[in-house]
Amino acid sequence: MPAVPLSSLRTGAAGVVAHVLPPQAPADELLVRRLAEIGFLPGEPLRVMARAPGAEPIAVRLGRSTFALRRFEAAFVQVESA
What we know:
- By secondary structure, the protein is of the alpha+beta class.
- The chain has one domain: SH3 type barrels, CATH 2.30.30.
- It is built from two helices and six strands.
């Protein structure tokens, strides 16, 4: 199954990070680096814990940590089903 953006997963969905998309613009470079630094690396399992009304932010459990990502940020993380 092809990888899908983390932003498209529903609450409760689990998966594994396939990869993080490369920056689309110079401003995205810091975001992509930050995602890698906090652990969004290939092979890492994750689960969508919650979504706020309006779909933003998205609470994502990665390892023992939970992160709140904006939909724009979550779209860079490509996920394969677990």
